[in-house]
Amino acid sequence: MLCQTVGAANESKAIESVRTTVEAVLDVMRDETLSGPEKSRERREKMKALISVRFDFREMSRRALARHWKKRTTEEQDEFVDLFSDLLQNTYISKIEKYTDEKVNYDKEVIRKKGKYSIVRTSILSKDITIPIDYRLMRRGDKWMVYDVLVEGVSIISNYRSQYNNILSRKS
Fold first, then answer.
1. What pLDDT digit, counting tens, does each position of 72-87 carry?
2. 4: in domain
3. In this predicted structure, what is the pLDDT of residue 99?
4. What is the distance between the alpha carbons of residues 172 and 165, in angstroms, rounded to a whole number?
5. What range does the domain containing 34 cover?
6. How far apart are CA 171 and CA 165, in angstroms?
7. Strand ranges (DSSP E) for the chain?
8. Residue 166: which H helix or E strand, with range?
9. pLDDT tens track for 53-67
10. What pTM was estimated for this model as a whole?
11. 63 in a structural domain
């Protein structure tokens, strides 16, 4: 069974949301009309459009800055969200562009906190290794939005939070 369903029927939509987004992004990578260096910009823009629908960059930014978030003005927060979302998307897309037809398994879904949060466990299978990738999602209305990604157990947001906290603590 690909997903573990707990509680209400729409809770299983988290794994389906991740699957739909990941497969759509991989379809862009497989699209031969978008292959080659001359199509890089167009390919990346299509992937960014797909990613931005599923990733909550404001929430990711807030979590990355942690206690420093509230100390920033609305304008500073907005600017950080713009810059941080570009960084995350470019990093994510750079990794996806290395994709060479590995298989993605959608292993299971774990629902938490009365259906408000979910972890979707996936793995990328290549010839030699399996890379676990977990997506942490939160429900926003009727949509599931990614707020963190763990690659081999390492949280992207925790990693950036540690770096930013170190920098901002020295400057404050």
1. 999 999 999 999 999 9
2. no
3. 77
4. 10
5. 9-171
6. 10
7. 103-112, 117-125, 130-140, 143-151, 154-155
8. helix 156-171
9. 999 999 999 999 999
10. 0.86
11. yes
